[in-house]
Design goal:
This protein is α+β, with helices and mostly antiparallel strands and about 350 residues long. It contains 18 helices and ten strands. The chain is about 50% helix and about 20% strand. The protein has a six-stranded mixed beta barrel. Strands 1-10-9 form a three-stranded antiparallel β-sheet, with no helix packed on it. The longest helix has 15 residues.
């Protein structure tokens, strides 16, 4: 590089078209950083050079221009179609900058390009939450959990904490308990401790949703090789037949039963559900009360599905999943499953 000629050049004139493509503008003293000038030159010659983009973003970050780096990643992907990971980095940067409107714009693009990617849904949820749109945040957090393809015990605690916070911001404290209890239930030995119990107790106190202090338990035999347990339970006082499913994130209801139980799901956000038959859709809603024998919980998140008899089996109204079961302790031993009141550790 000829130092004299390079310093005499105007960055806005030399790289004006590239600036337009990346959606940025750099002060002359920044553009004339020797390494940055060369990185801009690479992208001017090869506008879709992914390695060139990485180098540019790294240098912009070092010079204190993280926003311009994130904008470059966003507009690079829109122009060149890849890499999707650049959108992941871009959203994270805007969230760290507390620019939630722009974070949401980038996250929408990320979800559009990677609709089944758990991280895309989680980051868009954070952006929605930052913008105060807690209802949409809940849907994305639910999707992030359901779309996670690895062992759910490895899902970051942050996902469940953000989901609980979104419920709390909506004043739905009893529902806020569910994600925390679900996180605990995934690894109770490591997670059921005084810290997590304090978080749960605080939400229950704020929502006046703690159940009876009396100890109650329900015990069911595990019949047959498939170990499917069907039970009678009530949702909003309406009796139904359900399968106990500790692998299901939510209490899932057939739409016909949900109508009888007067579940308000018409405006519920559509979430993705992982089932034994693959991925399906359902509407996120709430049951005022779910009762299993002497065990009951109020304000239980549920998912309503448009289903037929083949979905769960003839005569089955839905699944009793972890949005209810996590309110209690579950033990499986000697051919029985026992669900009982939580006890302090």
């Amino acid at each position: 590089m000829n130092a004299a000629s390079y310093l005499d050049e105007n960055g806005g004139e030399v790289y004006g078209e590239l600036y337009k493509q990346l959606g940025i503008h750099l002060p002359e003293n920044v553009a004339h950083d020797p390494q940055l000038w060369m990185a801009l030159g690479v992208l001017k010659r090869e506008p879709c050079d992914q390695k060139g983009l990485d180098e540019l973003v790294l240098l912009l970050g070092r010079l204190g221009y993280r926003r311009e780096g994130a904008l470059s990643q966003f507009n690079f992907v829109k122009r060149c179609g890849a890499p999707q990971f650049a959108l992941f980095k871009s959203v994270n940067t805007f969230i760290e900058l507390s620019d939630f409107p722009t974070a949401l714009e980038v996250a929408d693009e990320y979800v559009r390009r990677a609709p089944t990617t758990s991280n895309a849904r989680y980051l868009r949820g954070v952006a929605f939450e930052g913008n105060g749109d807690y209802q949409r945040a809940l849907v994305d957090y639910a999707d992030a959990i359901e779309l996670y393809s690895a062992d759910k015990r490895t899902i970051s605690e942050r996902v469940f904490a953000h989901m609980a916070n979104a419920y709390a911001e909506l004043g739905r404290y009893c529902e806020a308990v569910t994600p925390i209890l679900t996180w605990i239930a995934l690894d109770p030995v490591a997670r059921d401790n005084s810290r997590s119990q304090k978080i749960v107790a605080d939400y229950e106190r704020r929502g006046n949703c703690a159940g009876s202090n009396e100890f109650h338990k329900e015990r069911f035999a595990l019949p047959g090789p498939n170990r499917v347990v069907t039970v009678r339970a009530k949702v909003n006082g309406i009796d139904g037949v359900f399968i106990i499913d500790t692998g299901a994130s939510y209490v899932s209801l057939k739409s016909a039963f949900a109508d009888r139980a007067k579940i308000d799901y018409a405006k519920g956000g559509v979430i993705r559900l992982s089932t034994a038959n693959g991925m399906t859709n359902g509407k996120l809603a709430k049951a005022d009360k779910v009762t299993l024998g002497q065990l009951n919980a109020k304000d239980v998140p549920v998912v309503v599905q448009e289903t037929d008899e083949r979905s769960y089996g003839r005569g089955i109204d839905g699944l009793l999943g972890m949005s209810f079961l996590s309110r209690f302790e579950i033990q499986v031993a000697r051919g029985f499953i026992e669900v009982h009141t939580r006890r302090s550790k």
